[in-house]
Amino acid sequence: MIVAGAGIIGLSCAWRLSLCKIPVTIFDASAAGSEASWAGAGMLAPGGEMEEASPLTEMALESLALYPQYVGEPREASGLAIDYRRCGPIEVALTEQEAGELEHRATRQAVLGIPSESTVFPGSISARYFPDDALVNPRDVVAALRVVCLRQGVRIHEHERVLEILPGDSGVMTSKGRYEDDGVLICAGAWSSDLAPVGLPAATPVRGHLISYKAEAGRLETILRHQNTYLLQRETGSLVAGASTEHAGFDRTLNETTVQTIHRRAARLLPYLAAMEPAERWLGFRPGIAGGIPAIGRVEGTSIWTAYGHYRNGILLAPDTAQRIVESVISPR
User: Fold this and answer.
1) 304: confidence class by pLDDT, cuts 50, 70, 90
2) In sequence order, what E strands does 95-202 have?
3) What is the distance of C-alpha 206 from the center of its chain?
4) Chain-centre distance for alpha carbon 272
């Protein structure tokens, strides 16, 4: 199996396929995990994303339940640390209207199997605590997956872009040569439409800015959310704030105005941040998709599989996506 894209989705699928004794070669136009997987904050938070019953909600809850095993196995096999915590995010309301909306949403989410409870947070009118939501450092996950993939015999070709799928789905042409195989998995994130067959949903880049502060470790022990603003802290002490949502194509230009907007929103939740300057600024390209449901599975009548279009939930959905791809690949055609 050839895998186009070595982000967290591609590496997860490659690892699981290799455990099933399927030979895998994976290609990436850059370094493994250096795009959306590197940029992502790592919230595993259906409570902050899912409000209605849908296939995406089901996938999110299934994937969240898989996460302890998903990070535990590569952590043990690689010997690398993975910052993963079930930390119970807190979402706050700062106005009476927001408080009413938050309570109404919590009622709908409870029916979906997303529990929350009322809590208090300084400066807020009301707040909800989501005990099942968690966080992970996706850079840790990618590093561990890269190690376990190599140990399983997966061949990883970095800085080698897949340009096209060969006729008959017999392999791929890359920036460095031709490779033949009996199946191709497309999981190139926001770039997946360059390879996807005609008729499949298009992937589009949705740019997001994030910032981080140097802070004492343990200063923020949960994820803190307010509408489109979130804050979380790594075990290293890095305190991450995000994010923006921008339809700007693949423009990698950092926008200082956007950075300062996120900084002001973050300081509204944690006032001590107002006196601090962001230590880092970066951006990533989320893979948006029409309809909001990732394209996961075999393209009918072909030897092509797809796993793209996860938008803001690629980190969360990685375990479930890999499981679905493996089941599709090994099932009778």
Assistant:
1) very high
2) 117-119, 126-129, 134-136, 155-157, 162-165, 171-174, 178-180, 184-186
3) 13
4) 29
